[in-house]
Every structure is written in C-alpha cells, then in structure tokens.
Amino acid sequence: MRNSTRYVAIIVIGIIALVVGVLFQVQVLGYYPTRAIVLIAVGVILLIFGIAGMMVTRNRSRL
C-alpha cells in the first residue's frame, strides 16, 4: 500500500470520527458528552495528520 493511500484512509477515518462525534453531540446516538468531545478531537487530529502527510509525500516525490 502506498503512502498516499494510507493518508487517504487516515482522512476517511477522521471524517467518520467527526461525524460520529457530532451525532453524539446532538444526542442522536445517545447522551455521551465525553465521547462526543473525544471523537471530535480525534477526528480533527486525524484530518490534520492525513492532510499534512499527503502534502509531505507529494513534496518529497517532486524532489
């Protein structure tokens, strides 16, 4: 598996974590305020990591 594929998978997992966190926040999946905050934070971190990884991988391949 190429590095870019891994970073796309990380971005997708981050988006899923964000969606589930928002669903917990608006109480669609139940009342779990701590899980909502944790999932939103993890989703944002994974999105940032995935996007940064894609940029670093792209820049290294051009050298």
Can you describe this structure?
There is one protein chain. This protein is mainly alpha-helical. The chain has one domain. Helices cover 83% and strands 0% of the residues. The protein is built from two helices and no strands. Helix 1 packs antiparallel against helix 2. 16% of the residues are buried. The mean pLDDT is 88.
Shape: elongated
User: In this structure, how is the largest beta sheet organized?
Assistant: none
Beta-strand residue fraction: under 5%
What is the rounded distance between the termini? 21 Å
Provide the helix percentage.
Answer: over 70%
Number of strands: 0
SSE string, helix = H, strand = E? HH
Number of domains as seen in the coordinates:
1
The overall average pLDDT, rounded, is: 88
Structural class computed from helices and strand pairing: mainly alpha
Radius of gyration: 14 Å
Keywords: Membrane, Transmembrane, Transmembrane helix
Transmembrane segments: 7-30, 36-57
SSE layout and pairing:
Elements: H1 3-25, H2 33-61
Helix pairs in contact: 1-2
List keywords for this structure.
single chain, 63 residues, mainly alpha, 2 helices, transmembrane helix
Summarize the structure.
The chain crosses the membrane at residues 7-30, 36-57. With 63 residues, the protein is an all-alpha fold.
